[in-house]
Amino acid sequence: MTEKTIYKNAFVRFYRAAIHTAFRSKVMQHFLVVTVALFLLTGCEDFFTSEATNVKIPGSEPQLVVYSFISPQDSLIRVIVYRSIPNTIDPRNVPHVFGDAHVHLAKKGDAFTQLSYDEDLMAFVINADDFSVEAGNDYILRVEAFSGETVEAICYVPGFEVDTVMLYEPTQTTDQWGSTRTNIQWEVHPTPSSEVRYYRSGAYSTAWEIFENQHQLLLNISPLWLDRGQEFFTYTNETAPVFRASSRFHLNLQNGTSNTPESTRIDSLFVFVMQTDYHYYQFHRSVENYFYFDDDFPFAEAVHIYSNIQGGLGVFGGYNKRLLLVAATPQGDE
C-alpha cells in the first residue's frame, strides 16, 4: 500500500467516526469540529509534502547570472559571472563559475574582444585602453561557460543630455542635542526632448580615516540620504527635478580650526548626475522596489527583478556620468 493510500484511508475512517460521534453527543460537537479542522491542516500538509518529494519544479535549475555596467568614464570594465541558487537545490551542489567561462564584448557591428579573469576582483576585466566605450553606441556582451551555457545581452551607452546642474550653497543645522547636519540642494536641468530619457542623481560625502593602529589612511565614501527628489527618474519636458540631501556629519565651511570631534567630520561633498539606458534604469528601480517592500504589509505585490540577459539572469547596462564637487574642507582646517 502506498503512502498516499494510507493517508486517504486514515482520513476517511477518522472523518466518519468524528461525524457519527458529533451527532450523538451535542456536548462534544464543537470540540470535534475543531479537532477535525486541526487534523485536516496537519494531515493535508503531510500529504502534500509526501507527494511533492523529489518533484522537479520547472525553472528550478541554476542559471548563469551576469552583472555589468559600462560607461565612457570607466578605466576598467568589469563583468561579474556566477550561477543562481534556486531554493530547491542545496548550494553545495551548484558549481561556481570563477574563471571557467569565455567573456566577449563588442560594439555592435565590430568584432568581439575577449576579457580576462581577475582572481582578486573575481570578475572578467579589460582595461579601457584596450576597449573604448563611446557614447551613442550599442554594445553586445556574450558569456560562454565551460559547462556549455551561453548567454547574451545588449545595452546602449547614452550621451549626457543635461544643460545645467544648479548647485546651492550648503547649509548647516544643529538639533536640540547639539548634533550638526550638513545640508545640500541641487537642481538637474536635462536638455528638453520629446523622447523619454533615464537619469539617476544623488550625493555622497568623503572622509579620510585612519585604520590598523594609525598605519593606514583610507578614504571612506558614504552615500547621502535624499530628503527630496527621487534618485532614479525619467524626463521629457517637465520641470527640472530638485534634490536635497543631508549628512549627519560636520563639514567645516569656514577657514580656521574646527571644534567638532574628528570622528564626526567629513572632508568633501559631491553630487553625481547620470544619464542611463533603459536596462540600467529598470534594473535599479526594481531593486529599489524590492528593498522598499514591507514584509508586514499583507497586500504587497511580489517584486520582479528586471533582467535583460537572454538565456540567464542579471543585467547589462550603460550610462554616462558627471561628478560635481559641492564643498570641501578649507586648507586652513587642521
List keywords for this structure.
single chain, 334 residues, alpha+beta, Immunoglobulin-like, 9-stranded mixed beta sheet, globular
Explain this structure to me?
The protein is of the alpha+beta class. The chain folds into 3 domains: 3-51; 64-157, Immunoglobulins (Immunoglobulin-like, Sandwich); 162-328, no CATH class. It has helices at 3-24, 29-51, 278-292, and strands at 64-70, 76-83, 101-107, 113-114, 116-118, 123-127, 137-145, 150-157, 162-167, 171-174, 180-190, 197-211, 216-223, 225-228, 232-235, 242-247, 268-276, 313-328. Strand 1 (64-70) and strand 2 form a beta hairpin. The longest helix has 23 residues, at 29-51. The radius of gyration is 29 Å and the shape is globular. The model is unreliable at 1-15, 17-25 and 36-54 (pLDDT under 50).
Q: Give the domain tally.
A: 3
Low-pLDDT residue spans: 1-15, 17-25, 36-54
Task: Tell me the total number of β-strands.
Answer: 18
Structural shape: globular
Mean pLDDT: 80
User: What is the count of DSSP helices, taking H or I runs of 4+ residues?
Assistant: 3
Structural class: alpha+beta
User: How much strand content do the residues show?
Assistant: 35-45%
C-alpha-based Rg, rounded: 29 Å
Largest sheet: 9 strands, mixed
**SSE succession:** HHEEEEEEEEEEEEEEEEEHE
State the helical fraction. Answer: 10-25%
> Span between N and C termini?
84 Å
